[in-house]
Amino acid sequence: MEHRVHWLEGDTTFAVASGETVLDAALRQQVALPHDCRFGGCGTCRVKLVEGRVHYEEQPFALGDEDMARGEAIACQARPCSDLVLSVAPPLRCSPPTRARAVVKDVAALAHDVVHLQLSLPDEPQLVYQAGQYMNVLLGDDRHRSFSMASKPGSGLVDFHVRRIAGGRFTDRALAALRPGDVLDVEVPLGQFRYHREDERPIAMLATGTGLAPLKAMLEALMDDADCPPVSLYWGMRDQGGLYLHDRIPSWAERLYDFRYVPVLSRPGAGWSGRTGYVHQALLEDQPDLSEHAVYLCGSPNMVADARSAAIAHGADPQYVYADAFTFQENTR
């Protein structure tokens, strides 16, 4: 049975065929609902069900029971049980995803398993993207690898933090062979993760692993900004060796208003005197009331899901909780 879906902010209505997901139907009819991974892991296509009901073949990873109780749905997995009215902000304003030839400027180790990759995009001055978005490296056989941009827009050069996966086609084999002057085919910009200046709230940022990259881009965009709000950055790693920018991050406080950096290790060595445990628990120990904050989460899907639920339980308004879960499969990197 066909159902009708009305998207309030987009002021548009589209049909969903029997068995079809809301997102698949929207994209089939050129309706630009925000989305990213398309398998329920990242939460980018989260919508508010103003009216109607949906069901799932399996509950999406990015949707908890509390989310469903609030009337939220994940459009890439949701199948209508009735006509629907949805509420979700339109996709951010930026250039449409564009294919370009990027020139390698630098390849250098940041840690034993993290590489700094710097690219020059020939049309970068005309390319409009937001700090927090990502790009695809195109591999020539309809496959790609996705990496968040780790530097603010506008410089002509774009940085990436690439975690090496043993045996990975790009992150291990191709990356090791790259040299300055080499050319990569890329697609950019992609994704909906970005800094929301309009919130005008103190910011709590939580990252695990290379989830630091898009948060670094946001922080760079806030540097020397008279309207920069107070920012806390909590970065979780297993051990101290993984904190590949640990010595540089404290200097960011010189160019940010009221900046605090808290590294958190889950498996610290004997010489570690800093915070330990889960990164979101460290935040909540320091700031148990998040009702006035905007919260940005980036890293493993488990951290994003746990931290989002915990932040909301400690007062964070769901509309001010933004997340980007890294949902790659290790054997395809």
Structural notes for this entry:
This protein is of the alpha/beta class and 333 residues long. It has three domains: 3-87, Beta-grasp domain (Ubiquitin-like (UB roll)); 98-190, Elongation Factor Tu (Ef-tu), domain 3 (Beta Barrel); 197-332, Nucleotide-binding domain of ferredoxin-NADP reductase (FNR) module (Rossmann fold, 3-Layer(aba) Sandwich), CATH 3.40.50.80. The protein contains six helices and 19 strands. The strands form four sheets. Strands 11-10-13-8-9-12 form a six-stranded antiparallel beta sheet. A six-stranded parallel beta sheet has the order 17-16-15-14-18-19, sandwiched between helices. Helix 5 (279-286) runs parallel beside helix 6. The longest helix has 13 residues, at 301-313. InterPro entries: 2Fe-2S_ferredoxin-like_sf, 2Fe-2S_ferredoxin-type, 2Fe2S_fd_BS, Beta-grasp_dom_sf, Cbr1-like_FAD-bd_dom, FAD-bd_FR_type, Flavoprot_Pyr_Nucl_cyt_Rdtase, FNR_nucleotide-bd.
